[in-house]
Design a protein that fits this description.
With about 210 residues, the protein is α/β, with parallel strands linked by helices. The chain has six helices and seven strands.
Length: about 210
């Protein structure tokens, strides 16, 4: 597994960060988040799922691998980096897959950026069963008007109390707000990074259970 590292090597925690369905690990969103968290004192290890690795080789766009393959990738990541000081997460699909494997992997925490609670326009088909009973401390950073799950919709999903939800003002799936909101994309990304670092601070202070 090849990683793109950002942040200090001696950080108390490493965040293994997966990309979303359509963009690679060095996409501007991923790079901005990784740099911000790295500047906050934590190591970020970005990586790519097999289908994205193949795209990097031949330039051909492919649909994401099936869930078992994606989950196995996170297992390989945890094995290589070690779960004791590891937090896993990702953007959209990457975060969803991380959330599906977090408890089994025994990692310290979970961070999801723009969680895809449902497909756009299909709020009746939610992907939240495992989030109602998750044991891993978790943070979900969500744009208020994300078409994959708005703030108003999420209120009724019955998520486990271990999940901390943070909403970015007027943000959509990539956290970008509308001009009329008075906010900027930079403000939302800066806020997301601040919340992530604060979450990592809390996880770092909490001793891992034997």
């Amino acid at each position: 597994m090849k990683f793109l590292y950002t942040g200090p090597k001696d950080a108390p925690l490493t965040l293994a960060l997966a990309h979303g369905a359509g963009a690679p690990m060095d996409h501007i969103f991923m790079t901005t988040i990784a740099k911000g968290v790295g500047d906050g004192g934590y190591r970020v290890a970005r990586f790519e799922f097999p289908y994205m690795q193949k795209r990097r080789v031949d330039g051909k766009k492919r649909p994401p691998d099936r869930a078992p393959v994606l989950i196995q990738t996170f297992e390989d990541v945890a094995k290589q980096l070690g779960p004791d000081n590891l937090v896993i997460g990702g953007k959209s699909m990457g975060g969803r897959i991380a959330s599906m494997g977090a408890d089994d992997l025994g990692v310290r925490g979970l961070i999801c950026l723009g969680y895809p609670f449902h497909a756009p326009g299909k709020p009746d088909r939610v992907r939240t069963d495992h989030l109602k009973k998750i044991k891993t401390p978790a943070l979900i950073v969500q744009g208020e008007r994300d078409p994959f799950g708005t703030r108003d919709e999420i209120k009724g999903f019955g998520l486990d109390r271990k999940i901390k939800l943070h909403y970015l003002g007027d943000g959509e799936h990539s956290f970008k707000p509308r001009k009329l909101s008075g906010r900027t994309e930079e403000q939302n990304l800066t806020e997301a990074i601040k919340v992530m670092v604060a979450f990592l601070d809390r996880v770092a202070r909490k001793k891992k259970k034997a």
